[in-house]
Amino acid sequence: MITINIPGNRKIAVKYLVLDYNGTLAIDGKLIAGVKQLLNTLSEQLEIYVLTADTFGTVKKELAGVNCQFSVIKPEEQDKQKEQFVTSLGKENVVAIGNGLNDA
User: Fold this and answer.
1) φ, ψ at 18 (rounded to 5°)
2) End-to-end CA distance of the chain
3) How big is the chain by its Cα radius of gyration, in Å?
């Protein structure tokens, strides 16, 4: 868990990191250099989940050796699937990062 003090607001206790894959961690299905090591470092304090439609079919291979869980979601309504996943974890304890409209 990581505690973040937001000045003028409150502290939040983050237990989970939810990430988009392609465009956020990877380009054209390949992990960006250095991401694997950074994720493994973060996994010492957070549970990490990667949600992806796996457009390039590479997520399983690319995330081998990364201390995280990943889920391949349907190409349709990705935004709703991601929202449901974050809600199931308890959104007050989640930091979610993505790069597209389906990550809003």
Assistant:
1) -115, 125
2) 23
3) 14
